[in-house]
Amino acid sequence: MKLWGGRFEKNTDKAVDDFNSSIRFDSRMYRQDILGSIAHAGMLGKCNIIPGDDALLIQKTLKEILADIEKGLIEFETDAEDIHMNVEKILISRIGVAGKKLHTGRSRNDQVALDIRMYLKDEIIVIKDMLTELENKLLYLAESNLDTIMPGYTHLQRAQPITLAHHIMAYFQMFKRDIQRLCDCYERTDVMPLGSGALAGTTYTLDRNAVARELGFASITENSLDGVSDRDFAIELASCLSIVMMHLSRFSEELILWSSHEFGFVEMDDAYSTGSSIMPQKKNPDVAELVRGKTGRVYGGLVTLLAVMKSLPLAYNKDMQEDKEAIFDCVDTVKMCLPVFTKMVSSMKIRSQNMYKAAQGGFTNATDIADYLVKKGIPFRSAHEIIGKMVLYCIQKEKSIDRLAMEEFKSFSQAIQEDVYTEISLEKCVSGRNLPGGPARESVLASISSGRKFLTSL
C-alpha cells in the first residue's frame, strides 16, 4: 500500500505507477534527500514536536541507509514513486512506528524543492570549478602567445591584425561572465524552502532557520506558496548553462575552422581527434564538433523548463516533476563538455607562422594607413576614401599595401612619407593599439593580470 493510500480503495494501475514514478531520475538526489531528512528530524526533536529519542533513532537510521545506498546495498522501488517515498519506506521498514514520524510538518512538495536546491547548489560549485580550470588554461595559452600575430575577423573576413593572446582573452572574458552568473544563480538557489508544507506551511512550531543553518542555506523562503512552486532557480541555472555552452560552441566553431587546411592555424592533438572509416588522410575535430552539437540539448533543457512552468497556477502541480530530467541533462552535458574541451585546447598545436602569413593578407593594415593619414592632418573620412582606392589598386595589381613603392603611395596622397613602411608593419599595427582592452602586449598582460586576480578571488 502507498504511504499516501489511506483514502483510496483500489491499487494504482501498474502502467500509472510506471508513468507516475520519478525514481529512475530523482534517485540521484538520495544524499540531499537524506541529509534534509536528518536535519528535519533533528529539528522536530529539539522543538519537542516528536520525542527526542525517536528523532535520534531516525537520524541514526537515515545515516545507515545513506551508507547502504552508497555501498550499493539498496535497490529503489518503482512502486514507491520517488526518492522521498523510497527513503521513508526503507526507514519505516527498519524502525517501524518511529519512522512514520519523520514526515511530520512537511510535504513532498517542500521536500523536493529542498532536495533540488541542495543538489543544484552542489553542481553549481562543481561547474564553477571546471570553468576556473578552463580559465587557468586560457591564461597560460595567452601568456604563451603574446607575440603570436594573427588576423582578427569581422563577417569572417580578415579585418585587423591582433595577437592570439588577445583573441584567447576574449574567451576568458566570456567564461568570466559565466562564472559570475553562476555565482549570482547560486545566491538565489541558496534559499531553504522546507517548512512551506504542501503550500500553506504547517501548524507545528518548526524552527525553519535552524534547519537552514544545519543544511548550509543562507536564508529561508518568505512565502510558502512560492516556496513549493518556484523553479526560477532551475530555469536560471539552465539559462546560465546555455550561455556557457554558447561560448564553448563559438570557441569550438573557430577551432574547427582554424584546424582546417584552408586556415591551418591550429592542429588538434591526436588524443582529441578522430579519423575517417573510409578516408585514411582525415583528422577530424570531433571533440569540438560534439561540443558544438551538444549545445542544442542544453538549449532544449532551458526551453523545456520554461514551457513546463509557463502556465502553472499556484502552487505545486505534477507537471513540475518534469523539471528534473531537463535540468539534470543540462548539468550533465556541461560537466561532460568542459573537462574534455579544456584538455583539447591545452593540447592543441599553434601554427604561428600560418597565422602571421594570414595577417599579412587581406589588407589588415588598411585602417592603420588611414589613421596614418589622419595624423598627417587629413580628415578621417577623406583618408578612408583614399585608402579604399589604394586597396582597389592593390587588388588590381595583385600587391599588398606594404609592397607599394613610394611613388605609388604618393599617387594617392602627397602626405605619405617614408615612415609609412614602419607605421603599417603588422608589429606596429598591434603594438600601437596600447589602450586598455587592446591587443598590444602591455594591454594583454594587464588583462591577464586582472584575470588572475579574478580567479584568485573566487
What does this structure look like?
With 458 residues, this protein is mainly α. The chain folds into three domains: 5-104, Fumarase/aspartase (N-terminal domain) (Fumarase C, Chain B, domain 1, Orthogonal Bundle); 109-146 and 163-356, Up-down Bundle (Fumarase C, Chain A, domain 2), CATH 1.20.200.10; 358-457, Fumarase/aspartase (C-terminal domain) (Ribonucleotide Reductase Protein R1, domain 1, Orthogonal Bundle), CATH 1.10.40.30. Helices cover 61% and strands 5% of the residues. The chain has helices at 14-20, 23-26, 30-46, 52-70, 83-95, 108-143, 164-189, 208-215, 224-229, 232-258, 286-309, 323-347, 352-360, 366-375, 380-397, 406-410, 420-423, 426-431, 441-457; strands at 149-154, 157-163, 191-192, 219-220, 266-267, 349-350. The strands form three sheets. A two-stranded antiparallel sheet has the order 1-2. Strands 3-4 form a two-stranded parallel ribbon. A two-stranded antiparallel sheet has the order 5-6. β3, α8 and β4 (219-220) form a beta-alpha-beta unit. α6 (108-143) packs antiparallel against α19. It starts with 13 loop residues before the first helix and ends with a helix.
Chain-wise SSE layout:
Elements: H1 14-20, H2 23-26, H3 30-46, H4 52-70, H5 83-95, H6 108-143, E1 149-154, E2 157-163, H7 164-189, E3 191-192, H8 208-215, E4 219-220, H9 224-229, H10 232-258, E5 266-267, H11 286-309, H12 323-347, E6 349-350, H13 352-360, H14 366-375, H15 380-397, H16 406-410, H17 420-423, H18 426-431, H19 441-457
Parallel strand pairs: 3-4
Antiparallel strand pairs: 1-2, 5-6
Helix pairs in contact: 3-4, 3-6, 3-8, 4-5, 6-7, 6-12, 6-19, 7-10, 7-19, 10-11, 10-12, 11-12, 14-15
